[in-house]
Specification:
The protein is built from 30 helices and 2 strands. By secondary structure, it is mainly alpha-helical.
Length: 700
């Protein structure tokens, strides 16, 4: 993979060569500043002033050339519009064909201009980031704040590509009208999805989508999955991805089904765990340990499955299915064996079978880039659906019978049902899964290759201009450019994936640590709400297992609609950090409303406060993981100890502590359980809000 400077030189349009950002000159200037500052020969104030002036000049050159080219395209479109109007008065099939070709020619030139804008936008972002990294400044913050929303800002021309939308619209609309639509009164504005569009229009739309990458439900859900992408290949690379045979639709489907079944397995026991514990002679609050045992085992299984997925995907999934089958079998048999130990061992086995790390890794490594967003969104959707279906299924299993000496009731049936489900899945997996070919690792080259995708430490660029173009995957080459002056060993080390949890932790910036704290907080609060729901509702309201199951099912059903609203609307109206802070505050409000301070404790209070807490936590999780996927070091995008593993471990630790809190608090009595378990949630939530305010105030 070549560095950006070489890529810019190779891909730039020759006749426009003088209008691109002079990336090579500015890179040399940054190195010169660095040497002069180290020698004490230059003041920082002079550096900032000089570099700002140089960058302003570069952006002015780009913006004025863009305006000139837009003017030329607009003039051509105006002339074509006149010909189009004349043709409507006197139709001529041969002239229609010629007119369409002329519009296509304008479309091809528009594509060139869009590519020109994209390359320059990437160059500006890279040089700003390089300046901050080499000189230790927060120059990006200052530059974006002062230029982004200024009325005379030329930076907006580049990053908002002002005016290009009108040209895109004119080409698309006229080509649509010139196709066989004379008998239709509908325009492109009346039909969101047009059938049989002109190939040029499709290409333009793809270029604009790549350029804007505006937030929508699909990419919001994909980031929610925290499937980190190491790089964004060129179109040629994408074709190669499909040809190398690594992607197999049925294998992807099997991974998504594995995700769904595991989430069902996690939550199917929640409505009956307290009753099962009491039937084995334990306290109702031991349900916290029963539910949390799965999370404890997942702390370890996430690591070994992540390491195993470096060599295979099929074998870990087979192992996962077998272990989960055994775990559910033990869980179901614990009733007749009258053993709480067997029950806990069964749940531990279920946790040891957690292959979510493999599911994530398969999507990031084997699914072609053009459908990776859909696959990632499918991963989140499968998880949400499993979370809703688990309690609902438990609510349906309200029967009791015996076959020989084996008891089937509401406590044991979840284990039997899931054991059968995993056995059927195992057979399907053995028949249909296709192991992708392992790709050999490339030897990194100092001056030409890099695979670091420092995903958006320049988040301020996106937020200042509200244009996610700044967060493209082109940043994967930056580490090589930053380190090319050092030794070969230093460069290779700087790009190597983390080889331990400790090494991975050292790569975390303060903002990433804050976001992991937020993730810990929301998982803790959600686990407290879900795991103790059966005990709390039985104690205060006398709810049956079916009632608890319906409540949890309704909570689970909110996941996808909430993400739809946030991803499609709210995230386009507000900045991520604003949504983040408001969501944290709403989680805090939900926790406060949940406390039992008024007698009697009512169903509306519990349900409404739980809904506020859960929905706010869901919004918070999506936005937090979206930000986390952009600011985490690219050295955490690959290898065993990757970003997905770190976030999974943070969430799993939160769940373990929450479930342990429920069990410990149970010794104080069920009347104290609610307030005692909510208190740590409140403290952690307040700490996360303070940390968020402090971090973003320092950044912005």
């Amino acid at each position: 993979m070549v560095t950006f400077g070489k890529k810019l030189k190779e891909r730039s349009i020759q006749e426009w060569q003088g209008y691109y950002i002079n990336y090579k000159l500015m890179k040399k200037k940054v190195k010169q500043y660095s040497r002069q500052l180290e020698g004490g020969n230059l003041e920082r104030r002079h550096v900032l002033k000089d570099f700002s002036r140089m960058l302003d000049n570069q952006i002015e050159k780009i913006a004025l050339f863009m305006l000139e080219q837009q003017g030329l395209l607009s003039s051509r479109l105006r002339r074509l519009r006149e010909s189009h109007d004349a043709l409507e008065e006197q139709p001529d099939i041969s002239l229609v064909s010629n007119l369409k070709e002329e519009y296509r020619a304008v479309g091809q030139d528009l594509l060139k201009l869009l590519f020109f804008v994209e390359m320059n936008a990437i160059g500006i972002r890279k040089i700003l980031k390089k300046f901050d990294k080499r000189l230790g400044y927060r120059f990006t913050n200052y530059y974006v704040k002062t230029r982004a929303n200024h009325p005379y800002s030329e930076l907006q021309q580049v990053f908002r590509h002002v005016g290009l939308g009108a040209v895109v619209g004119a080409v698309s609309r006229n080509l649509h009208e010139l196709q066989n639509n004379q008998g239709s009164y509908l325009s492109i504005y009346d039909q969101p999805v047009l059938p049989l569009q002109d190939p040029v229009v499709d290409s333009i739309r793809a270029a604009v989508d790549r350029l804007t990458r505006s937030t929508n439900f699909l990419n919001f859900m994909a980031k929610h999955a925290l499937i980190m992408q190491e790089e964004l290949p060129s179109p040629q690379d994408e074709e190669g991805e499909e040809e190398d045979g690594r992607y197999h639709f049925m294998s992807l489907l099997l991974n998504l089904v594995n995700t769904f079944l595991y989430m069902v397995n996690t939550y199917i026991i929640v409505p009956t765990a307290d009753d099962y514990s009491m039937s084995l002679g334990a306290a109702a609050t031991v349900c916290g340990v029963v539910i949390g045992a799965m999370a404890v085992a997942q702390l370890f299984s996430s690591v070994y499955f992540s390491a195993w997925s470096n060599r295979s995907y099929f074998k870990p999934l087979i192992f996962s299915s077998i272990v989960l089958f055994i775990g559910n079998l033990l869980y179901a048999l614990a009733f007749d064996l009258n053993s709480i130990a067997v029950l806990l061992v069964g749940r531990l086995f279920c946790g040891f079978g957690s292959a979510r790390a493999v599911n994530r890794r398969y999507i990031s490594d084997c699914v072609p880039l053009k459908i990776r967003m859909q696959a990632s969104a499918g991963f989140v959707s499968a998880s949400a659906l499993g979370m809703a279906c688990g309690p609902a299924l438990a609510g349906l299993l309200q029967v009791r019978f015996k076959i020989y000496k084996v008891t089937f009731n509401q406590d044991t049936l979840p284990g039997w049902v899931m054991a059968i489900a995993w056995l059927m899945y195992l057979v399907w997996l053995a028949i249909s899964f296709r192991e992708p070919a392992l790709q050999p690792e490339e030897i990194p080259k100092i001056s030409e290759e890099s695979n670091n995708s420092e995903a958006v430490q320049d988040v301020n660029l996106e937020k200042g201009i509200k244009q996610p173009l700044l967060i493209t995957a082109e940043e994967i080459e930056e580490q090589a450019e930053d380190e090319c002056d050092g030794s070969e060993e230093a460069v290779e080390d700087s790009r190597a994936p983390a080889n331990s949890i400790v090494a991975a932790y050292r790569l975390l910036t303060p903002s990433v640590k804050v976001q992991l704290l937020i993730y810990f907080m929301l998982k803790y609060a959600m686990e407290i709400l879900l795991s103790e729901s059966s005990v709390i509702t039985t104690y205060y309201f006398g709810w049956s297992t079916s009632s608890v199951a319906i409540f949890l099912f309704c909570l689970g059903l909110t996941v996808l609609p909430v993400n739809l609203v946030v991803g499609s609307y709210i995230s386009n109206m507000f900045e991520d950090r604003q949504i983040l802070l408001v969501s944290e505050i709403m989680v805090c409000v939900g926790i406060l409303l949940s406390f039992h301070v008024v007698v009697p404790y009512t169903v509306p209070q519990y349900v409404c406060s739980g809904l506020i807490m859960f929905v706010s936590a869901e919004v918070l999780e999506g936005v937090n993981l979206s930000l986390l996927s952009r600011v985490m070091s690219s050295r955490l995008s690959r290898g065993t100890y990757n970003g997905g593993l770190l976030s999974t471990e943070a969430g799993t630790i939160a769940r373990v502590i929450a479930d342990a809190t429920i069990t410990v608090a149970g010794y104080l009595g069920r009347d104290m359980l609610l307030n005692v378990t909510l208190l740590p949630s409140l403290v952690i939530c307040v700490l996360s809000i303070v940390a968020t305010c402090f971090t973003y105030n320092s950044m912005y």
